[in-house]
TrEMBL record:
It is found in: Mitochondrion membrane. InterPro entries: Mtc. The gene is sfxn1. Pfam families: SFXNs (PF03820). This is Sidoreflexin. It is a multi-pass membrane protein.
Amino acid sequence: MAVEISTSINIKEPRWDQSTFVGRAKHFFTVTDPRNVLLTNEQLGHAHKIITDYRQGIVSPGLTEDELWRAKYVFDSAFHPDTGEKMILIGRMSAQVPMNMTITGCMMTFYRTTPAVLFWQWINQSFNAIVNYTNRSGDAPITVSQLGTAYVSATTGAVVTALGLNALTKHVSPLIGRFVPFAAVAAANCINIPLMRQRELQHGIPITDENDNRLGESTKAAQQAISQVVVSRILMASPGMAIPPFLMNHLEKKAFLKRFPWMSAPIQVTLVGFCLVFATPLCCALFPQKSSIAVSRLEPALQEKIRASHPGVERVYFNKGL
């Protein structure tokens, strides 16, 4: 006979300890699992029912704790945490690996001509815009104007970087030329993410004490959060864009690819995908989702306010985003 599980399990938080890198890595391996892209509407609906019922104190008959956590991660993979709406399929975290491996693999295969650079950098930034819109915060919504500005600026930055570096690397080793797409992606991330989150840089992000009591909004915390996300995103792209160029440079000298040159793109996509399966969750886990900053590093006015109302608080916490 199945034992009914408790209704006191906190499914608002991740299953594993988020104060350790291993706990965060386990969480993000589950969140970014590409298999979730293949889930049917029926499976998503079933997970949705389990979670909404559980939040109301209703436990489905025979439900085990493992099944509850599985339903939570299926639910989180497809439904927006603030609005509750079903997210666009290619904008979900579970679509990051299959989408990025295809786009990145093609960017790194077709990088030699200007039309190819323009096309694939445009495709990449269009995908980034969809991801950013899909995962927008309900507390600080992205306007169409902000989305458009970030999209155009990031695409322009990526294309200018790629074309400029292509011109500079024409007379150097072909291997160095293979790293041009990585430089373009890094430049685009440095433009795109701050622009997408400009509202936070202007007005601050919510900060709390360790008990989740809101203490105000801080632009200094926003700067730290966005810096951490930019570093994570660039490092996330690094293995998939740094390791395959060496391998492809070696393989293209072999008889197989000289005989079947059309195999270059599939091999590159596969290599990038293998790297991304590990790099995506591990780089998301580099910094705690609930990051912290010392009160002494906040804006002077906010420091005074916190010390007056909460004299014992030395560190404050905030959600860094992804």
